[in-house]
Design brief:
By secondary structure, this protein is of the alpha/beta class. It contains 3 helices and 5 strands; from the N terminus they run βββαβαβα. The protein has a 5-stranded mixed β-sheet with strand order 3-2-1-4-5. α1 packs across α2. It is globular and about 45 Å long.
Amino acid sequence: MKSVTVLYLLASEEEFRLLRGQGADLTEISHRKASSFSDVEYEFGFPKSQNRGGGIGFDVSGGHTETEIERPRFARHAAQGLAEEWEKGGYDKIVISAGPKLLGALRKALNPALSPQIAAELHKDLVNFSLHDLPGHFKDLAGI
């Protein structure tokens, strides 16, 4: 029986990893940090108004944190990386693991054509786990 080959996307707010897996054997394909994408590097020191004359201050953050502003942009980069690796072929299924908020952003950013290939989503940030420790997190996934 042929072993299932899984493409794993592990993502956090600051970085993502793509892994190739067959059973408990995992190999890292790529590892990218948010700071490696030129469109993600911004200064977020939104100054508050210092005008004592009652002038209007402008806060372009809209009350959102830097992470909330950057999350969708970084999710698009991670989704694009996943799609490009999937297109190379050789994979049977996709597993995505990220914290809940980033997982929501990834769902929005993913190419809809990949949706049927997604075997599982984990609401866990596993990006900093070693390859040795990761298989235990995936052992209960059906068909993996």
